[in-house]
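We include the pair:
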Amino acid sequence: MTNGESGAEVVTYHLTQRAGFSVRDNFSLLNLTGFATVSLQARFAGLWTRERWENSNEEKFDPPSNHTPCVMQMQTLTAAFLFSLESQTTIGYGFRCITEECPVAIILLILQLVITMLMEIFITGTFLAKIARPKKRSETVKFSQHAVVSTYEGQPCLMIRVANMRKSLLLGCQVTGKLLQTSLTKEGETVRMDQRNVPFQVDTSSESPFLILPLTFYHIIDDNSPLRKIHDTLRSGLLADFELLVIMSATIEPTSATCQVRTSYLPDEILWGYEFPPVVSLSQSGKYVADFSFFDKVSNGGGLVSEVTDPEKIRLEQSYREQRGEDRGRVRDGPISVRISNV
C-alpha cells in the first residue's frame, strides 16, 4: 500500500470534492491579504502627499531652481501611491527617491517599512495557521451517509464506513460512539440527553487502524451493548427515538496536530438488514483501488448494489415484495433523500 517514500499506493475514483479543498480554504485569506496590502499602500500615499504639501510654503509653490524636495519626482497623488508601493515592496525607486532634506519624511519611511514588516509577519503566520488548522483537515474525512445493521461473524453488528480522502496519513485513528436518547431513571427522573458509550472496532480490533483506504467500523450488538434494547424494539416493529453520535480522533501526520471529526445518525439513517458492498479492489498494476462511487451504496444480501433511499419507502417496498413473493436479494434504487446531521 505504501512506497519507499511513505507515499500511498492508492488510486481513488469518483472523488469530486478534492479539487476544491485548497481553493476553498485559502480564498478568503487571499482576498484579505490583497485588501490589506492595497489599503496600507493607499494610506501611506495619502501621508506622503500630506508631507509634501506641509513642507511646501508659499515660495516653494514656485520653487527656485536650486530647491530640493523631500521626495524627488512626486508631484501628484498617483506618483505618491507609486512611491508608497515601491517603498513597501522594495522593488526599486527609479526616478522617485527620498532625499535628506526632510527628517519627517525619513521617519515616515521607516514607519512604513516597520508596519509593512509586521503586516507580512501577520499574514504569513495566518496563512500557515490556516493551512495547518485541524478543522480544515477534518473536512477531508468522509463518513458513510447511512449506518447499516447486519450479521457479522454470527452476531448482529452496527457498521459505518470511514474514509480519508487525502493521501497524507492520519495517525492513531480512534472511532467511538455516543448513544443519545431520553431515558427514565429508577427514581422517575427524566434524563433528556442520556449518553451511553458505543465502542467501535475494525477487523483485528486494532485501536489504531491504518486509515489509508476506506474502512468499515462495526459495533457488536450483544447483551452489553446500549443498542440491544433498540435492536429488539425495532425488530418488534416499534419506533425508537435516539441519535448515534460518531466521533473519530486522529493525529495529522505533517503537523502532529490533533483533529476530531463528528457526525450523527438518526433512527431513519440506520438501515437494518443491509450491508456495505466492497469498495477496494486490486488493479492489474498491483495497486489498491478505492472506488468512491460505491462508498454510500448498500445492498440487502442479494449481491446487487443501489443508492440509498427513504427508509420508510424501503420498508413499504419490502412488505410489498413479501406479499408478492419476490426474492429477498433484490436491490432497491432511488435518489438520496435522507438528511445527514453533522455536528
Summary: The chain has six helices and twelve strands.
